[in-house]
UniProtKB/TrEMBL annotation:
Residues 276-332 are annotated as: Disordered. Pfam families: Hydrolase_4. Residues 277-293 have a biased composition (Basic and acidic residues). This is Serine aminopeptidase S33 domain-containing protein. Transmembrane segments: none annotated.
């Protein structure tokens, strides 16, 4: 059954860009690796570290670590479909700069210059390898890590978050309840379903921010709203009116809300998490979790900017400046063209962010 699940995931959820948007080259004088993407020419080499990491399933994935000089937190970003870290660099760079965070991006197995073939289980091993690299190489503690999962990236992000009781925070960007639920309205999970986020969200102990567009035609906003409702530690969500599946970064509310979230997270004292192992946390009986009885991230405990499931989302009143979108590259168009040949049903579950990476994050 596991093989069938992986096969379904590969057919319906994974579309690596072909060809990859970058190559990895090594400086002969220093031995340092870098990505030969044209868009990286404006960034100094010492601010970016390109690495190859071996996963527990035997694949070698490519990662990119952007260091911010004043960062207190590190974002581990799991990107959407039909893209790679070469195409995502502009967004990574903008987020690191405007949020004052270190940022680690990585390519799933079979994406970019990472070896292997993509599958659900491979993505779990991929994010685990990137996380271990942050822990071992950068000495980054769990309480300083924010997992960010966009679209299909919400799957590996939630899988890892469900096993890390000391994780600082989780951001879910256009997430879905499960792969099958994107296509059909089903009430129960089936063995052949993939990325069962609806079950794992109840195991996450850290604050959760959900971002979703109201006009998302790929993953309906009801997915994001239900995941937010099931979160134990809720942060004020961002429902972007008129937002689709692939353009949320371009909305003027996007960066200010993320900055607000990061600011609140930075000010929180490190919570006194319960003492148990990661494996124990992962095996927790889901039937013992009652969302109505679980604690919410509210003023008396953390911050007045947090809400419970009974609260209405407050209207944001944050000043911002509109930004200009950067021009897309031919590689993005090639990735888009690969989708057009697949038919409406498969496109409905592609869980991609091609349109997102065609534009840079709006400056704020």
């Amino acid at each position: 059954m596991g093989t069938a699940t992986s096969t379904m995931a590969a057919k319906l959820a994974f579309f690596p860009p072909n060809p990859p948007s970058y190559t990895v080259v090594t400086d002969e004088s220093t031995g340092k690796m870098r990505i030969s993407a044209e868009m990286m020419r404006h960034r100094r080499d010492e601010e970016i570290e390109v690495v190859k990491i071996m996963t527990r399933r035997g694949n070698e994935i490519v990662g990119m670590y952007i260091k911010h000089p004043t960062a207190k937190l590190t974002v581990l970003y799991s990107h959407g479909n039909a893209t790679d870290i070469g195409q995502m660099f502009i967004i990574y760079n903008e987020l690191s700069h405007h949020l004052n965070v270190n940022l680690m991006g990585y390519d799933y197995s079979g994406y970019g210059r990472s070896s292997g073939k993509p599958s659900e289980q491979e993505t779990y091993a991929d994010i685990e390898a990137a996380y271990n690299w942050l822990r071992e190489t950068c000495s980054t503690k769990d309480e300083r890590i924010i997992l960010y999962g966009q679209s299909v990236g919400s799957g590996p992000s939630l899988e890892l978050a469900s096993r890390l009781p000391r994780l600082r925070a989780l951001v879910l960007h256009s997430p879905f309840l499960s792969g099958l639920r994107v296509m059909y309205h089903v009430k129960h999970s089936f063995w052949f379903d993939i990325f069962k986020n609806i079950e794992k969200i109840q195991l996450v102990d850290c604050p959760v921010l959900v971002i979703h567009g109201t006009d998302d035609k790929v993953v309906d906003i009801s997915h994001g709203k239900q995941l937010w409702e099931l979160s134990k530690e809720k942060y004020e969500p961002l429902w972007l009116k008129g937002g689709s599946h692939c353009n949320l970064e371009m909305f003027p509310e996007y960066l200010p809300h993320l900055r607000k979230f990061i600011g609140a997270i930075e000010k929180l004292p490190v919570p006194q998490f319960r003492r148990h192992s990661v494996s124990d946390d992962h095996k927790k009986d889901k039937q013992q979790l009652d969302p109505k009885k679980s604690s919410s991230w509210i003023g008396s405990r953390h911050s007045t900017e947090c809400v419970t499931s009974r609260d209405n989302s407050r209207k944001m009143n944050i000043g911002h400046r509109s930004g200009k979108a950067r021009n897309s590259t031919d590689s993005f168009d090639r990735a888009r063209n690969s989708f057009d040949r697949l038919g409406e049903m498969v496109r409905s579950v592609r869980l991609c962010n091609v349109d997102c990476v065609k534009n840079a994050v709006a400056e704020a």
